[in-house]
Design a protein that fits this description.
- With 472 residues, the chain is an alpha/beta fold.
- The chain folds into 3 domains: 4-121, Rossmann fold (3-Layer(aba) Sandwich), CATH 3.40.50.2300; 155-318, P-loop containing nucleotide triphosphate hydrolases (Rossmann fold); 322-471, Helicase, Ruva Protein, domain 3 (Orthogonal Bundle), CATH 1.10.8.60.
- 46% of the residues lie in helices and 12% in strands.
- It has helices at residues 12-22, 34-43, 60-67, 85-93, 106-143, 155-167, 184-193, 212-220, 237-240, 256-268, 294-299, 305-311, 328-342, 352-360, 366-380, 412-417, 425-439, 444-451, 455-465, and strands at residues 4-8, 27-31, 48-52, 54-55, 58-59, 75-80, 98-101, 174-177, 202-206, 245-249, 270-271, 280-281, 285-290, 314-317.
- The strands form 4 sheets. A 5-stranded parallel beta sheet has the order 2-1-3-6-7, with helices on both faces. Strands 9-10-13-8-14 form a 5-stranded parallel beta sheet. A two-stranded antiparallel sheet has the order 4-5.
- Helix 10 (256-268) packs across helix 12 and helix 18 crosses helix 19.
């Protein structure tokens, strides 16, 4: 359906010229004064209002004010032969999208109206997707309130929702596998929310963030005097989670000694504090997550095989974002609403170019990276839409799709991606890490956050850059 344009000008030659320039591409209405303009605005869903500043005895500013009070206000462009900076500023302050001066350049006006109409179309599409996403979420809430944070309509995500619904009420230990940033913690929360266990009894431990000694004490607690600086008894996370859920994030990073104690806790449902031989019974449902291949690690002797089998009673495999492309825009719209509200900004749509950039990017950091990109766009945009330039520069680093424009030399990122004209997953990952480090001026902690991985994982991958094994 063509966009509806309303031209308001008290000079007939101007109205006719604009109608002639625009009516091949748009559905055009004309009005010579406020009364006629109000009738059209009342009866037609006008997308773009192109109005003169002076309408005989009336003012186009008044029409602008009225148009912007409509339930679905049009994009407003002001025209005047009396152009001045003050007038333009006032029009923009009152809500005009753009300001043009007479005599009009019809080609420029046609281009401006086309941009305005396209922006309105993008806004409508985003609104439709937002409504669709909301409907999907409400449907999920009715079916299962615990799944409201897992957004998506891809077959893989729908299957995960069904699986979570089925296994959540059981006591089975669950292993959530997937790349960093795919939403493993959201699934863990959903499993807890639907388990019937107390809402405030979900305890989270990031196993990669603690040294072996600290991790053992964190999980199982310790007695006073158990080690240096153990000045008092400490209750561990297993005891804190008694009756609830313990989520072990990055479980593949647990050291060998702690793996032995974790195995006992899972098999016997008892723990011992560090420095004590007294067994303590606990009723804890364990959910673990990893971005590593534990089966492969177990086969190589780097992870206890018996512990792997205990953790792997039920496996939930989280797909990378690149394999659920139909969810990218749904997720982006959800993050737009979240960060607009959080930062006190109006909800702005993503431009056509920004949407294409999101669709084309390979998202090595998955949903977490998309979330970061949308927050950046919301904060950086000072226009009516979020454009490509408002999104982080690292989005220019795309998966190998052969999209370099003809005649344009490859960017540094593209050179990093394909130093020999060929691509593999290692090249893409390493180039993405280099790009993140450049973006954060070499700050590894910030780069790890940007990529959605732990600092320890980043350090390990940096070692692989210079290691021939990393290319395997």
């Amino acid at each position: 359906m063509n966009a509806i344009i309303l031209i308001v000008d008290d000079e007939k030659p101007t109205r006719d010229g604009l109608r002639l320039a625009l009516d091949e591409r748009f559905e055009v209405y004309v009005a010579s004064d406020l009364r006629e303009a109000r009738q059209v605005l009342k009866s037609e869903p006008v997308d773009v209002l192109l109005t003169d500043l002076r309408l005989g005895p009336d003012s186009g500013m008044d029409l602008l004010d009225e148009a912007l009070t409509l339930a679905k206000p049009p994009v407003c462009i002001m025209m005047t032969a009396y152009g001045s900076v003050d007038t333009a500023v006032e029009a923009m302050r009152r809500g005009a999208w753009h300001f043009v001066t007479k005599p009009l350049n019809l080609e420029e006006v046609e281009l401006l109206v086309s941009r305005a109409a396209r922006g309105r179309e993008i806004e409508s599409e985003n609104r439709r997707l937002t409504t669709e996403n909301y409907a999907l979420q409400k449907k999920a809430e009715i079916r299962n309130a615990g799944l409201d944070r897992i957004i998506g309509k891809s077959p893989a995500i729908i299957k995960i929702g069904e699986m979570v619904t089925q296994i959540a009420p059981t006591r089975a230990t669950v292993l959530i596998e997937g790349e960093s940033g795919t939403g493993k913690e959201l699934v863990a929360h959903a499993l807890h929310d639907l388990s019937g266990r107390p809402a405030d009894k979900m305890v989270i431990v990031n196993c990669a963030a603690l040294s072996p000694q600290l991790l053992e004490s964190e999980l199982f607690g310790h007695e006073k005097g158990a080690f240096t600086n153990a000045h008092q008894r400490r209750i561990g996370r297993f005891e804190q989670a008694d009756g609830g859920t313990l989520f072990l994030d990055e479980v593949g990073e647990i050291d060998a000694a702690t793996q032995v104690k974790l195995l006992r806790a899972l098999s016997e449902r008892t723990i011992e504090r560090v420095g004590s031989n007294e067994p303590i019974k606990v009723d804890v449902r364990v959910v673990a997550a990893t971005n590593r291949n534990l089966r492969e690690m177990a086969a190589m002797g780097r992870f206890r095989e018996d512990l792997f089998f205990r953790l792997n009673v039920v496996t939930v495999q989280m797909p990378p974002l690149r394999d659920r492309a139909e969810d990218i825009i749904l997720l982006a719209n959800s993050f737009l609403r979240e960060f607009a509200k959080e930062n006190g900004r109006s909800l702005k749509p993503l431009s056509d170019g920004a949407l294409n950039l999101l669709r084309l990017y390979s998202w090595p950091g998955n949903v977490r990276e998309l979330r970061t990109a949308i927050e950046h766009g919301v904060v950086m945009s000072n226009e009516e839409t979020i454009e490509e330039r408002h999104l982080p520069s690292f989005l220019g680093l795309r998966a190998p799709t052969g999209t370099t424009e003809p005649g344009n030399p490859p960017s540094d990122a593209e050179k990093d991606l394909a130093p020999g004209g060929e691509f593999n997953l290692h090249d893409i990952e390493m180039a993405t890490i280099r790009s993140a480090l450049r973006y954060t001026d070499g700050n590894r902690t910030k780069a790890a956050d940007l990529l959605g991985i732990s600092r320890r994982t980043l350090q390990r991958k940096l070692k692989e850059i210079s290691s021939p094994k990393g290319a395997n």
